[in-house]
Write a structure and sequence with these properties.
The structure holds 2 protein chains of 2 kinds. Chain A is mainly beta. By secondary structure, chain B is of the alpha+beta class. Chain B is 56% helix and 15% strand. Chain B is built from 4 helices and 5 strands. Classes of the chains: A mainly beta, B alpha+beta. Chains A and B meet through strand 3, strand 4 and strand 11 of A and helix 2, strand 2 and helix 4 of B.
Chain lengths: 200, 143
């Protein structure tokens, strides 16, 4: 998969700048669906298709300065485009093959600060079982426990992460049928807005 | 049958004009330019508003923006949102999890142009068929 660009916010700044923690910190992305907002879109002259998901699983572990490991997973059956028949097609073997590959994932170990609240993240993006390197710039922000409590998130440290990136379907072995070629773009834009809660 | 060809051709030609005129009217009179967003629930919006700082994108408070601004036909007023943080923005909430699909003017033009081309071709073919039949009939009479 070729990633063209990714922008977002993640509050990792404080974490990266802070002295190395004595023990690993783990954040879980498996939070309430209302705090998960994932949008994907295909734009063509004839038709724009877009959809969403509010389910994600995964974690982010910070072992010591700059040593971060993360994994995110989105269930394919959570992707909705607004038309039930189109969702069925999306899950079919021709497209995402949800039966064989039920999740889309992004996993990596490289996070580098590139600006205020901005981080370059590198990892492996897996769609339909095909892995491709993905490099993106995310924006992140830490929500310390005191503020999180005040905001009603609960008694824990939180992270908010936002970003977008592009996914090329053909890089993942998806061949758009001729009948759909004029209406479905090979390149999809994905935008995410996530929260992660500190688990340990 | 020949007698029917003329009104059919005229009807198809008129249909072409009507379809394009209707699309033009829909485009000009019934559309609103909005930024489509996948909406965040009220609890998340309240949270994002607290976290928002001036200079940051406003649409992100209310959900995840999708693409460029789009022109939507007769958007439901309860799905429109003008953020207090930037009153120039007009957002439209589209919840795909609930099967919402607002009609974009792009789709109207897509359908209208194809229908107009189809009707236009039908008008030409019917007119040609009528001319050919007339010529054949008059040639038959001369013989």
């Amino acid at each position: 998969m070729r990633v063209i660009r990714f922008e977002s916010w993640v509050g990792l700044a404080a974490l990266l700048l802070a002295p190395a923690a004595a023990r690993a910190q783990t954040y879980s992305f498996d939070v309430q669906p209302k705090l998960v907002n994932i949008a994907f879109e295909s734009r063509m002259d004839i038709e724009d298709i877009f959809g969403s998901s509010n389910r994600i699983g995964g974690w982010l572990k910070i072992r010591e300065r700059n040593k971060i490991h993360f994994k995110l997973e989105v269930p394919v059956d959570s992707l909705k485009t607004g038309i039930a028949m189109r969702d069925d097609h999306l899950r079919s073997e021709t497209w995402l093959n949800a039966g064989k590959h039920p999740a889309i994932s992004f996993e990596g170990k490289s996070v580098r600060k590139v600006g205020k609240h901005r981080y370059e993240v590198k990892g492996t993006f897996t769609l339909r079982g095909r892995k491709r390197p993905l490099k993106l710039t995310v924006q992140a922000r830490e929500i310390p426990r005191a503020r999180a409590t005040k905001l009603g998130l609960g008694d824990a440290d939180w992270l908010r992460v936002r970003g977008s990136f592009k996914v090329k379907l053909s890089d993942h072995g998806i061949r758009i049928p001729k009948m759909a070629a004029a209406k479905v773009s090979d390149t999809w834009t994905v935008r995410v807005s996530l929260f992660a809660k500190r688990a340990s | 049958m020949r007698r029917l060809l003329r009104p059919a051709a005229v009807g198809a030609a008129a249909g072409t004009v009507l379809v394009l005129a209707a699309a033009l009217a829909v485009d000009g009179l019934m559309t609103t330019e909005v930024q489509l967003i996948v909406p965040a629930p009220p609890e998340a919006v309240a949270l994002e508003r607290e976290l928002w700082e001036p200079g940051q994108p406003v649409a992100g408070i209310y959900g995840t923006p999708v693409g460029r601004p789009a022109r939507v036909v007769l958007p439901a007023s309860d799905r429109l949102l003008r953020p207090a943080e930037d009153t120039r923005l007009l957002l439209m909430k589209v919840d795909k999890q609930r099967g919402e699909n607002p009609l974009q003017v792009k789709t109207v033009w897509f359908l209208a142009t194809r229908l107009a081309v189809g009707l236009g071709l039908a008008a030409v073919l019917l007119a040609l068929l009528r001319a050919w039949l007339s010529r054949r009939t008059s040639a038959g009479h001369r013989e």
